[in-house]
Each structure stands twice: as C-alpha cells, then as structure tokens.
Amino acid sequence: MNPISRLGRSSTAGSLTMALVYGFIAMIVLTFLLSIILAVTDMDESKLNVYTFSIHAASMLIGGFSAGRRVESKGWYYGGISGLLYSLIIVLIAFLAYDAGINSSSLLLIAITAGMGMLGGMFGVNIKK
C-alpha cells in the first residue's frame, strides 16, 4: 500500500487536517447556497444568525464524520477536537478581520461546533466500510 495514502487514515494530524478541510469546504458550499436562497426568495434576513449557526453546525458534523472515519476509534474525541479547532479558526478570523472580541455568541459557536464535531465523529467511527 502506498505510504502517502496511509498517512491520512491513521495519523491524528492527518485526520484533524482533513476534518478541517471538509468542514471549511462544507461551510463555503452551504454559505454560497444560503446566499443564493436569500437573493432569490423572500427569506427573512433577521434570522441570519440562526442560519450561520446552522451552517457551522452542519459543517462540523461533516468534518467530525471525516475525522471519525479516518481514526476508526475515539471518534467523539477527534471530532470534538476538530470542532474546537474549527471554531477557534473562525473566532480568530473574526477577531483579525472585524475586531470582534469573544462574547456569548462566539462561546455558543465553540460549544455548537465542538458538540456537532463529537456527534459527527461518533457517526464516522460507527459507519461500516
């Protein structure tokens, strides 16, 4: 077997990296779809905060699933770590780009992404190949 293909499957760093990659790709796609839906329909933009938390939750469910699938054990642990890393990157970008500090909204984001990452990791470990 090719050693490069084995790296992403058993390595902790490789599984967390791929979880973040899948999470950010899912976030980009879902954000793009939401923007199209908001432009075409008469959806209420006052609930934009709920929509963004839903996008982050779905993104980390996918990322946690990827992490759990790759490590094949302790999916909740690696999914939770990937959720924490994902949210810390988002909070760091918000701080650097918009000068947004840590508030209750960012703490809620951290809790949601860690929880959804854990859930996705549990699903990823238990899916039969």
TrEMBL record:
The keyword Transmembrane applies. InterPro entries: DUF3792_TM. Keywords: Membrane, Transmembrane, Transmembrane helix. It comes from the Bacteria. Signal peptide: none annotated. It holds the Pfam family DUF3792. The chain crosses the membrane at residues 12-38, 50-68, 75-98, 104-125. Coiled coil: none annotated. The keyword Signal does not apply. This is TIGR04086 family membrane protein. It comes from Marinicrinis lubricantis.
